[in-house]
Amino acid sequence: MRVGKLSSEDLSRIINENRGYRRNEVRVRSSIGEDCSVVEFGEYEGVFSTDPITAATINIGKLAVNINANDIASCGVQPLGILVTILAHPSSTLAELEDIMKEIDKECRKLKIEILGGHTEVTDAVNKTIISATVIGRTKIGTSVLTSNAIEGNDIIVTKDLCLEGTSIIANDFKDKAIKILNEEEIEEALSYSEKLSVVKEGKISGDFKVNAMHDITEGGILGALWELAEASKVGFFIYEDKMPITLITKKLCKFFEVDPLKFISSGSMLICTDNGEELVEKLVSNGIKATIIGKIINEKRVIINKGKEIKVIAPEEDEIYKLV
């Protein structure tokens, strides 16, 4: 099998055929594009999501916290707790495991998330250290924002810059090659992108704004996230390539490493759909969050417009990060 996520078709079939017992308390069940499950608890509902870190080798504790907290934030909810499983290769040292937990602790303190538990073991079943985490959040019943609620006419907004995670991974894990095209100042900026991976702030602001739908942009980049949102919402979209917020440093690295930035892992950016795009952009910017309207939700077609030409967007394949690992 190819490296990366399963195809949307295969994953959807496997999930739908293996749901286990269906409980009445589950208001929202995870599916393609819908990364969180929502479970009713009286006047509140719990929001749950889980994800591993497999592509990176540096800052994996920081990444594990942020990518999972971002899933909860995409529901407009503040994450409150995390459970962490660490599977370490036998070549790992105790100091390395302690460093990972220090990273996790630091990020959790920033985001006000309690470490609730987990599991750590050394095993030769992996060829490098793997982290998988589950994050939970809580909100008033019926208030979680869903990925599946985008509707025709919604503006499509992206926060911050795309490819922050992918760029920071290259700068960390492939620095020996990156220094061939970036100067020291640019390397430092690329490394600093790992400090911008959380979308909890914009998720909470957008949830309070009552947006239609949100989805954090991870594996598959902006095109993968848009495809998943469109599948979940049964809609189409058009977006403009020249409106994509991508830094010059990211463009340089993507060109050198032959990576498509529109399909490159992009934790740190939130995809938001709302009727009032300009108003929300203004609100986000006033709170120190860069935000860009890149297109609209439409009825059927899924296209990206480049120099006036419509290019059909197809179901995402493996993320561009896997070209490097």
Write structural notes for this entry.
The strands form 2 sheets. Strands 8-10-7-11-9-12-13 form a 7-stranded mixed beta sheet, with helices on both faces. A 6-stranded mixed beta sheet has the order 1-2-3-6-4-5, covered by helices on one side. Strand 2 and strand 3 form a beta hairpin. The chain is of the alpha+beta class and 325 residues long. Helices cover 33% and strands 26% of the residues.
Q: Main attributes?
A:
six-stranded mixed β-sheet; Hydrogenase maturation protein, carbamoyl dehydratase HypE; PurM-like_C_sf; alpha+beta; 325 residues; 60s Ribosomal Protein L30, Chain: A; HypE; single chain; 26% strand; PurM-like_C_dom; seven-stranded mixed β-sheet
In terms of DSSP E residues, the strand content is 25-35%
Global shape: globular
State the major sheet. 7 strands, mixed
Low-pLDDT residue spans? none
Task: Supply the CATH class of the largest domain.
Answer: Alpha Beta
**CATH domain topology of the largest domain:** Phosphoribosyl-aminoimidazole Synthetase, Chain A, domain 2
Task: Estimate nothing, just give the exact number of structural domains.
Answer: 2
How do the helices and strands follow one another from N- to C-terminus? HEEEHEHEEEHHHHEHEHEHEEE
CATH superfamily of the largest domain: PurM-like C-terminal domain
pLDDT average, as an integer?
94
